[in-house]
Write a structure and sequence with these properties.
Elements: H1 12-15, H2 20-32, H3 41-44, E1 50-60, E2 63-75, E3 81-88, H4 93-109, E4 115-122, H5 130-146, E5 155-159, H6 165-178, H7 205-218, H8 221-226, E6 237-241, H9 245-257, E7 261-267, E8 270-273, H10 280-290, E9 300-302, E10 315-318, E11 337-339, H11 348-356, E12 360-362, H12 364-367, H13 370-384, H14 393-411, H15 417-423, H16 429-454, H17 461-480
Parallel strand pairs: 3-4, 3-5, 6-7, 6-10, 10-11, 11-12
Antiparallel strand pairs: 1-2, 2-4, 7-8, 8-9
The protein binds glutamic acid (GLU).
Glutamic acid (GLU) binds next to strand 3 and helix 13.
């Protein structure tokens, strides 16, 4: 494990690429150029307001290891600020700042009333035992909490790459012990296990959001036509990169609930392809049992998985890392629709190239917003100290029964059992989470497509998403008096 790894900066000559942060800024600038914002406001909304870097020691393996991490706050037009904490062997301040900026725009776009933030820690979780990870997480939490970078009212982290519900439970517990008198302490972090005041449906929320977002896209014939695709998600050939928390759930839902065909899966040790469709569930199980996908028997295996990004397919879903589709491979990308489930998978240079070619990109800040949306529900649940559905479930069931009684009495006929069952449903927490998420994804897509179709100077969905988000944040700043 290395605690001092510095991310290599690609040279201009090799890739002609901007850094991730510059890439996000360029996309932002492109959108700002279509707007008429008061002078100075665009600059205020662009860069992170504050960043804290922490370096802390943890005793382990008979010695002391020093870890380095960051938490960036992009925009505090709404509080708390929100965004995940990433554990990765290679992460740096620029990356965290870029991700924090995307969080502000993402939250604004989907009307989640938070500002944007992100955290990162240089650590390779696979090189550590569970108790080492716990010690590091608890110490990192103390470092951030003492500086106001974790707090239910100011800054609320969540899972991101390399972290999950387990880490969030450690963060919550550490925070609660630091501030035992804070009755809302448990709301200091989201993505907790359901048994630790988490919420049903949070684990798969980002994948669910990808599914709901794609469904909504396919409801709009004009948009589907832009991508040169036939109507309906059913039967569409999908290549997905990354079978982590986001990619796995998205792929599984699309395969089982929308009859899409997952023809390609890209993982860190290669790619699998089958024109007739892969079984996401079986590959996922194989991957966990064998620490990778190499050797999976029922598909064509390619060692250089990234070549599958260029495969013939209807929808390409990058659901792994930023910077996967670059100026280099963009000219070889064959799909007409890219659905960005990861944050920043398409670089600015690639984006410019692809939009000129008419490739439709459903942007990250919209498509992967399911995670933070359900995080918002979890935070509300924590502040209200009650599970969603607890007060009204039984009442809804009784109302349904009453409606059945009335209908049967008036018609003199018995309502078929399957219909009666549907009427008698009282919503559980998971039903409410799904309903709220679905509604959020539909509404946000309609807003951004309206901007796309109505404004001549907005030529792609990403710019439309930025425009929607920037307008909302700008309005908030102007109304409160910057
Ligand atoms: N890390 C996720 C994201 O990038 C979730 C953030 C959150 O729930 O706060 O959107």
């Amino acid at each position: 494990m290395s605690t001092t790894t510095v991310k290599p900066t690609p040279t201009q000559e090799q890739t002609h690429e901007l850094s991730f942060l510059e890439s996000v800024y360029s996309m932002y600038d492109r959108a700002v150029a279509t707007l008429n914002l008061p002078p100075g406001l665009a600059e205020k909304m662009k860069r992170c307001h504050s960043v804290v870097q922490v370096r802390f020691p943890v005793e382990m393996r008979g010695g002391i290891r020093v870890f380095t991490g960051w938490r960036a706050v992009h925009s505090e037009h709404r509080l708390p600020v929100k965004g995940g904490i990433r554990y990765a062997p290679v992460v740096d301040q620029d990356e965290v700042e870029a991700l924090a900026a995307l969080m502000s725009f993402k939250c604004a776009l989907v009307d989640v009333p938070f500002g944007g933030s992100k955290g990162g820690l240089i650590i390779d979780p696979r090189q550590h035992t569970e108790s080492e990870l716990e010690a590091v997480t608890r110490r990192f939490t103390r470092e951030l909490a003492m500086k106001g970078y974790i707090s239910p009212s100011l800054n609320v982290p969540a899972p991101d790459m390399g972290t999950g519900a387990r880490e969030m439970a450690w963060i919550a517990d550490t925070y609660r012990k630091l501030y035992p008198h804070d009755i809302n302490a448990i709301a200091c972090v989201t993505g907790k296990p359901v048994t630790q005041s988490g919420i049903q449906g949070r684990v798969e929320a980002t994948g669910r959001g990808v599914q709901y977002g794609l469904r909504e896209f396919f409801r709009h014939a004009d948009d589907v036509k832009l991508a040169g695709l036939s109507s309906g998600l059913g039967g569409k050939r999908i290549v997905i990169q990354g079978l982590g928390n986001v990619g796995y759930h998205a792929a599984r839902f699309l395969e089982h609930e929308d009859d899409a065909k997952i023809v390609g899966i890209i993982e860190r040790d290669g790619g699998l392809f089958d024109e007739n469709g892969l079984s996401v569930e079986r590959i996922h199980a194989y991957m966990y049992a064998n620490q990778g996908i190499a050797g999976y028997p029922d598909a064509t295996y390619v060692e250089d998985g990234l070549t599958l990004l260029e495969a013939e397919c209807d929808v390409l879903i990058p659901a792994a890392l930023e910077g996967q589709i670059t100026a280099k491979n963009a000219p070889r990308i064959k799909t007409k629709l890219i659905a960005e489930a990861a944050n920043g998978p398409v670089t600015y240079a690639a984006d410019e190239h692809l939009r000129k070619r008419g490739v439709v990109i459903i942007p990250d800040m919209y498509l992967n917003a399911g995670g933070v949306t359900v995080s918002y529900f979890e935070w509300i649940k924590n502040l209200s100290h009650i599970r969603f559905g607890r007060m009204d479930k039984r009442l809804d069931e009784r109302r349904g029964e009453a409606i059945i009684d009335i209908l049967e009495e008036l018609s003199g006929k018995q309502i078929p059992a399957n219909l009666a069952d549907r009427l008698k449903i009282g919503a559980e927490e998971l039903d409410l989470v799904r309903s709220g998420l679905d509604d959020t994804m539909c509404k946000a897509y309609r807003e951004l497509r309206e901007i796309y179709w109505k404004r001549d100077n907005v030529r792609d969905l990403r710019t439309a998403a930025f425009v929607s988000a920037i307008q909302k944040i700008a309005r908030t700043y102007m109304e409160m008096g910057t």
